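Worked problem 6 (solution included).
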Amino acid sequence: MSSIARRSLLGGLMAAGAGPMVPARASDWPTRTVSWIVPFPAGGGSDMFSRPIAARVSEAIGESVVIDNRSGAGGTVGTAVAARAAPDGYTMLVGDTGLVYAPTIYPRAGFDFLRDFAPIAAFGRVPYALVINPARIDAANLEAFIEMAKKAPGSIDIGSAGLGTVTHLAIGLFEGRAGIKLTHVPYRGGAPMLQDLLAGQIGAAFVLVSAVAGAVRSGKLRALAVINRRRDVQLPDVPTAHEAGLADFRMTTWFGLFAPIRTPDVVLDRIHAAVQRALGSDEVKRLWAEQGAKVELESRADFANFIDREVERWTRIAKAANVQME
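Solution. The predicted structure is:
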């Protein structure tokens, strides 16, 4: 059974119980403003990738699509609000990688990603790179970095964008795959982490390729590997982790659109089609290229299957990392 079929079955079972009713005339949708909840502050990745798409979707459906920033507790506050929203097509969620495993590390998250949301469409995926400050760490490549860490466990400090973030979990995954021990330095966001990396306050970090490409090209930082299936056009000379000797180690941040689980298929299909058209526009392609993002043109079923795999993968990583947030 496909991911969409499973979710449709679950939605039907839930509809048989208590809860808000699905609108009787979904074919009339929309007749008013549609809200996309972004569970992070304005200016962040989810916000940045959603606004150009929302503007074009609004044109396609003939009603306004507004961004509603509801941040807090690693994105769980806004996500829980979206999970409880009426499944009528007027409230949707802009989700990202960190939300699929959030219930594992936030005991009171208030949602289950597979149970509560129907995937609509991916916006894009942005790869990370393992980057070092060469003034702090004299490693020419990933193999040399791993060898240094093995010889002196805990001697290399590596920053993350914060406890429980994708970059935090990536450190644990990297340590396990490479058989090394690093010293984790958590920050309150990716920007201060990158600032300290540039200043030499920390030696290494996993950073979005788009955020460090300029510093790598100028020699201020050195990228040891792109954590993706293929090399990045912004850093074509930097090998993938697999090419550098660390097989099956990949990490991207993705952004996409979701709706409460019982939202009618006719609404989901119309939004999906509008998002696909937006992603195919020259302007969005240009904006995404500037951020090193891969445009995702795929079916709802493909995106749902991808989300299933991501939930399973990152939940397993989160449990192994044994991270618990209040």
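Discussion: The longest strand covers residues 117-132.
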